[in-house]
Amino acid sequence: MSEPDDVDTPHARVEREVTERAFRDVFATSAGKRVLFWLLEQAAIYRDAYTGENNDTNYLLGQQATGRRLIGMLDLIDPRFYPQLLLDIAELKALDRAAAKAIAENEAGDDDDADYV
Asked: What is the largest CA-CA distance in the chain?
C-alpha cells in the first residue's frame, strides 16, 4: 500500500481505500484478530530486541519494524484498532483457557470412568 505522504493519485487513493477495507474486514472477525496478533508476535514486537549479538539484534529490530508498520497501519485506519485488538485477544485467550480446562476436566472424567468398567 502507498504511504500517506505519497502522491495523491487516483491509483494511490483506490489502493488505500481497498487496503483499508481489507483491514476492516480482517479486524471484524475473531479469526482475523487472531491472525493479526499472531503476526505481531512473529514480528517480535513484544520482545526485547537486544540479544548481545549485533547481527541477531539487528535481525530482531528488522522484525520489529515490520510489526510497528502493521500497528501503524491499524492506527492510520482507526486509532482504536490496536488497543481494541489487545483487549479482544486477552478475551479470546481467556476463552481458550476455559475451553482447554473444560476439555482437560472432561478427559480426566473419562479416565475415572474407565476404572469402573
From this structure: 75
> The C-alpha cell of 69 is what?
508498520
Closest CA to 35 of 70, 72, 76: 70
What is the C-alpha to C-alpha distance for residues 43 and 8, in angstroms, rounded to an integer? 30
15 contact partners, CB below 8 Å, separation of at least 6: 1, 2
Q: Tell me the CA distances in angstroms from 78 to 6, 52, 105, one per residue in order.
A: 19, 37, 41
Phi first, then psi: give them for residue 44, nearest 5 degrees. 55, 30
- Taking only the tens place, the pLDDT of each residue in 45-71 is 999 999 999 999 999 999 999 999 999
Give the three-class secondary structure for 43. Answer: coil
Question: What global pTM score does this model have?
Answer: 0.75
User: Which amino acid, residue 31?
Assistant: A
The Cα angle at residue 89 between residues 58 and 72, in degrees rounded to 5: 45
